[in-house]
Every structure is written in C-alpha cells, then in structure tokens.
Amino acid sequence: MSFEVVDGELSFAEAGTIRQGRHPEQVLMHVIVVRLRSIIDQLEAQIRELDQRKVGEIESRQGALGGKPVLAGTRIPVATVQRLVQEGLDEDGIIQLYPDLTPADIRAAIAAPAASSPPAAAR
Questions:
Q1: How far from 84 is each of 42, 88, 102, CA to CA, in Å?
Q2: Closest-CA residue to 81 (of 51, 54, 52, 104)
Q3: Distance from C-alpha of 70 to C-alpha of 11, rounded to nearest angstrom
Q4: Which of 34, 74, 40, 38 is nearest to 58 (CA)?
Q5: Mean pLDDT of successive 10-residue stretches along the chain, which has 123 residues
Q6: What topology is assigned to 58-111 in CATH?
Q7: Which helix (H) or strand (E) holds 70?
Q8: How many whole angstroms separate alpha carbon 85 and alpha carbon 28?
Q9: Which pLDDT score, from 0 to 100, does residue 79 have?
C-alpha cells in the first residue's frame, strides 16, 4: 500500500485501486506487524535440519541419478563405492576420493545388495 498527499488530500493505492480520504484523520488503517526475526529463526532452523545428513544410510530419490541407491544426503551411488572396494581401494582411499563420506557410509554401501548389472545387449 502506498500513500500520497495531493492538494492537501490523502490518497492511497491498494491492490491496484486508488482511494481518497478527505482528511487524514478520517482514513482508517489496519496495521499488520510481521515479526521477521521469528520467521528468519524458524527458516534457519528448518534449513539446519535439512542440511543434516543421515550418515550410514542408503536412499533412493526420484531425480537423483535416476532413482539409483545413493548414500543418504549425497549423490554418490552405492554401486560406485562397491566397485571401488572390489578394485581394492580401502576405506581411507575412498574417503580421499569422496571426503564427504564417513566410514559408516562405506560400511553401509558394502553391506547393501549389489547393484544389478545392466542387461546384455541383444546380438
């Protein structure tokens, strides 16, 4: 809402309309108080909660790598960790490649069912 005084008369625009009050003391106004600090605090708390990763868990999310199993809160496929282990990489080596992972994540990926290999091409 915006206010303007033109030729001694108070006018205000509200939702695309213009209304005019003859005397400022005749214009009634509703005051809405928005407590921004409270809203900001609530949003920051929700963001912190969403940022917390479920360490050592596997999840599949629509839109994340076509729904393939990934380590929770990451886009790192379980199959990738399993392949690295099969190739002989130890926990420290995997964590060096993927610093966001924890030993619990790697153990969860190893314990997960092996990803099925893609179907063989028709000959």
A1: 41, 7, 15
A2: 104
A3: 60
A4: 74
A5: 68 58 51 77 90 85 85 92 95 94 94 65 43
A6: Arc Repressor Mutant, subunit A (1.10.10)
A7: strand 70-71
A8: 73
A9: 95
